[in-house]
Specification:
CATH architecture of the largest domain: 3-Layer(aba) Sandwich
Radius of gyration: 20 Å
CATH class of the largest domain: Alpha Beta
Number of domains: 2
Number of helices: 13
Number of strands: 13
Order of helices and strands: EHEEHEEHHEHEEHEHEHEHEHEHHH
């Protein structure tokens, strides 16, 4: 079948949408599908079947510029996949079978253009989301398995005394919670990711003497190397005061489980779905109580259980099979 994929984010860019796009495209091609990708032009964008697109105010008008560039391919496609609703605004006006995916802040925050969101969502032939939480926020969708690469066997338990956080450093990702948790538990911490809140997280670690290293953004292979050396990976985000903007899933937690590293999270947005058989903290703002809860729960067998759960529920092949079933 001939697929056209419309996306703002594509590898080598980091982030959940980029990771989803790169893995799904590779999986569709491996399954024998013909795939043309139209993505925002960025340095390092691959040239094999990927068309870089430019246009003013791209973040807001991505769908227009992508659609105008891809209109010929769209008209000849068997299916069109918009990795966010914004990427599908132009395609939604065409008589084509359109699939739209809800990823996170594109639906968990009030849309800048609510009428445009409603139009795209209503026009979509099929609606997908990466978590049940996101499906509810978007007004209904089929939940996709996470497109992660699952290790043939779980890694041996690290027992390194090191906990990790893999997330973009924004005020809502819970980096401060993680830093205080490491200090209360007396363990080493590692933070992978970059963003505007990183200086604040560094300053907090310095002020309370938390032994946390900040590695910045890393390529996927380097992130994997960090994950396999952790006792557990954490994600402790907050929602905004009005309740919007909650974490849609937490793909890094599932990626850790795919290696055999257990996850710890909190009951915010779709995080509990990504934690799987891991641990949900009762009160992530109580660092001492949370540290005790983690240390009482964490044992070598947790990683193997996380891997088994991930193998049963997720994987690139499962994601592609769900997309290709119609």
């Amino acid at each position: 079948m001939r697929w056209v994929v419309l996306t703002d984010d594509h590898p080598p860019l980091m982030g959940g949408v980029a990771a989803f796009t790169g893995r799904v495209v590779a999986g569709l091609r491996a399954a024998g599908h013909e795939v043309s990708v139209f993505a925002r032009a960025r340095p390092g964008l691959p040239s094999d079947g990927v068309h870089g697109v430019i246009g003013p105010r791209f973040g807001r008008h991505a769908g227009t510029w992508l659609g105008l560039r891809a209109v010929g391919a769209i008209r000849g496609a068997d299916r069109v996949l918009a990795t966010t609703w914004v990427a599908g605004t132009f395609a939604a006006r065409l008589p084509v079978p359109l699939d739209v995916v809800a990823h996170g802040s594109d639906v968990t925050r009030p849309p800048v253009r609510p009428a445009a969101f409603s139009r795209v969502w209503a026009a979509a032939d099929r609606r997908f989301a990466l978590s049940a939480f996101l499906a509810g926020a978007a007004g209904g969708a089929v939940v996709l398995p996470a497109p992660v690469h699952i290790a043939p066997d779980p890694v041996a338990p690290a027992r390194s005394g090191t906990w990790g956080l893999v997330a973009r450093a924004t005020p809502w990702k819970g980096g401060g919670r993680f830093v205080r948790l490491c200090a209360a538990a007396g363990v080493r911490g590692v933070v992978v990711g970059d963003g505007p809140a990183l200086p604040q997280w560094r300053a907090l670690a310095s002020s309370i003497g938390a032994p946390v290293r900040f590695l910045g953004a890393l390529p996927p292979g380097a992130v994997r190397d960090v994950l396999v050396g952790l006792d557990a990976v954490f994600l402790l985000p907050r929602a905004r005061p009005d309740g919007s903007g909650a974490e849609g899933l937490g793909l890094a937690l599932i990626e850790a489980a795919a290696l055999g590293v257990p996850a710890v999270g909190c009951d915010t947005g779709g995080v509990s779905e990504a934690v799987g058989p891991g641990l949900i903290l009762a009160d992530p703002d109580d660092a001492r109580a949370s540290a005790a809860q983690v240390q009482d729960w964490l044992r070598p067998s947790r990683g193997g259980r996380a891997w088994s759960w991930c193998r049963q529920q997720h994987g690139v092949d499962r994601t592609v099979a769900a997309l290709a079933s119609f």
